[in-house]
Design a protein that fits this description.
Distance between the termini: 23 Å
Helix content: under 10%
CATH superfamily of one domain: Cupredoxins -  blue copper proteins
CATH topology of one domain: Immunoglobulin-like
Strand order of the largest sheet: 12-11-10-14-19-16-17
Number of strands: 30
Number of helices: 7
Bound molecules: CU-O-CU linkage, copper (II) ion
Strand content: 35-45%
CATH architecture of one domain: Sandwich
CATH class of one domain: Mainly Beta
Amino acid sequence: MISRRELMKTALSGGAAAALTVSRSAHAQDENPWARLVGTYGTVPPPSFARPLPIAPIKRPTATTGAGDDVQLAIRSGFGQPLVGAKTPILGYDGLWPGPTIVAIRGRPTRVTVKNELAEPANIHNHGHHAAAASDGHPLDVIKPGQSRTYTYPNRQSGGTYWYHDHTFGLTGNHVFRGLAGVYIIRDPAEDALGLPTGPCDVPILIQDRLFDAENGFDYSANAGTIFKGVHGNTLCANGVHTPFLSVGTRRYRCRFINGCNSRNLRLALGNGGALVQIASDGTLLNAPVSQTSVELAPSERADCIVDFGAAKVGTSVVLRNLDATWPELPDVLRFDVVRKEADTSRLPVRLGDVARVPESEAKVHRRLRFQISDGKWTINGLRYDPARIDFRPKLGTTEIWEIENGEQTQMHPFHQHLIPFQVLDVNGEPPPAVHRGWKDSVAVPPAGRVRLIMRFYGYTGTYVFHCHKLEHEDHAMMLQQEVIA
Ligand code: C2O
Ligand code: CU
Ligand code: CU
């Protein structure tokens, strides 16, 4: 591991240690007194729907043996084309934004060797992956410039949609904003047998908001305002392009929506009021499809939705909108253009997964976490992240209930747990909606609200973090760590 001091120095030089000085009384009177500190958003660019939705290349293994797949990734700078005109300098896995999509098969390990070709430390965290601590991408376990590391992903967990991203201490927000994120899919033969849309009709859609400077470069700044509210952009990108279109046939599609925004909530809906039929939440299939007119996603949450164009007329279009009201509002995501008649051989079964609810009586340990501002800093239980301190010591093979309270009135915090998934017992005392009754790895804790989660510590001992997934909150130390002990 890189030394703590070394990393702190890097984080500081990146401007990531700007002070968050916010007093409780200051924001009691005003809805958004930080708006003026957050930066100049300019105007939200109108949708163009002029370029196709890019689909990241599927990463080809360099070796495939009985023992799994070997994959090589390089973290390097490159260029994206989110806007028309000048290209945007990015940091990317393989120099791409989003990085290549890694497709694994349940039960077959994937070993990913990552070379850091940047001049600063970076790493990879496979969000939602159940892996040994050495392969988790702990915030202080970074790859030094010029060095390589091999991460082993066992893929012994539910098939579904995951994503990978940088997790460097104090620089995660900066690195992810500049492009260090990609999609990780675990395919499960049992899921394949369901007959859901596949191949080109199975579309990962990584949604991220960005802010640009006059030369189309990313404009990321951590200051008191953005550390408080989180960095928000004025331009929504899907797979690295602002308001693209996707040409579709008259059939079902599986859209794997991922909220990859640093801090922005999304509420996705079809412009014609049509159904988004959710089949999976985070990495796990729901027991049954849930038909909705909108799908809410906090940062890092995923929703796999079936969108059926079977009744649509060739030549028509449907815009995917974002109804979330976070300022500045970004109402357009992409446009589906129905361009051809196509027979549909896919199915949408009434039964999908087999998640059994974990009984509360199974938990012997109850913990409380309070997300709050203390002394003008983001904290959990009044504590900021300290790599030298172990905050919780859960025992391997046991079940715990965590009650997370949001002590903040003005914004939600998305809680994310590493290593193991959880089930949501209740949100503000009410049972969770059907789409949140499976296994999840991130959940929104509403303003002044409370969420109870139940989780089983299984598989690995070692040190793993948990944190707010607003990346500016996480970087400014709204993160603690647990050591899972035998
Ligand atoms: Cu998506 Cu700790 O991360
Ligand atoms: Cu994670
Ligand atoms: Cu937060």
